[in-house]
């Protein structure tokens, strides 16, 4: 199946979720350019391989984590081929007992469902509950790809726009971490 790359938002809103459309509205309002491919639901990094090939950029893992009290959240962006080790990240942050947040928390805080968590969900974090963590290896890429809060499309955005214009407009900042994927 060949995926077709489009510039900007879809011409038709039919079949698009409100959360997905909100991402397009937000990026357009901020003047952030993006390319898009529509595709069947992508639940795994393996599902994203043809998307990466079509867009010519990396799709990264978006992991939504929480502290033991479920009072603070972390959105970790990391290369899709790097293993995630909770202990390694916890040590770097000085936070004990990190775990994956519940699906209901992801929906409430980021406006995303499992399989569609995304940096673009930060537009829904009005209470500033999420700290963005970015693996330093992603900073080497000219472009990065992420779902627009729905895993039926993927957007390709300049890394400088994502961590510049986009983060500034959402009033978030990034904390860089260096993950090795080892114990």
UniProtKB/TrEMBL annotation:
The keyword Disulfide bond does not apply. Keywords: Ligase. The keyword Ligase applies. GO terms for molecular function: aminoacyl-tRNA deacylase activity; ligase activity. CDD domains: PrdX_deacylase. InterPro entries: ProX/PRXD1, YbaK/aa-tRNA-synt-asso_dom_sf, YbaK/aa-tRNA-synth-assoc-dom. Residues 39-162 form the YbaK/aminoacyl-tRNA synthetase-associated domain. Belongs to the PRORSD1 family. This is YbaK/proline--tRNA ligase associated domain protein. It comes from Oribacterium sinus F0268.
């Amino acid at each position: 199946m060949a995926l077709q790359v489009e510039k900007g938002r879809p011409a038709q809103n039919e079949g698009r979720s409100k959360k997905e459309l909100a991402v397009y509205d937000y990026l357009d309002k901020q003047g952030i350019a993006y390319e898009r491919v529509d595709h069947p639901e992508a639940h795994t990094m393996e599902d994203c391989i043809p998307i990466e090939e079509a867009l010519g950029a990396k799709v990264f893992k978006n992991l939504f984590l929480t502290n033991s009290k479920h009072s603070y959240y972390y959105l970790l962006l990391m290369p899709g081929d790097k293993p995630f080790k909770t202990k390694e990240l916890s040590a770097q942050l000085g936070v004990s007992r990190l775990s994956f947040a519940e699906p209901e928390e992801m929906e409430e805080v980021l406006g995303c469902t499992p399989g569609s968590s995304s940096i673009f969900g930060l537009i829904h974090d009005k209470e500033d509950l999420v700290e963005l963590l970015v693996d330093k290896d992603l900073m080497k890429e000219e472009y990065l790809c992420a779902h627009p809060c729905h895993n039926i499309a993927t957007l390709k955005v300049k890394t400088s726009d994502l961590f510049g214009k986009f983060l500034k407009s959402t009033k978030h900042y990034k904390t860089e971490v260096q993950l090795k994927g080892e114990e």
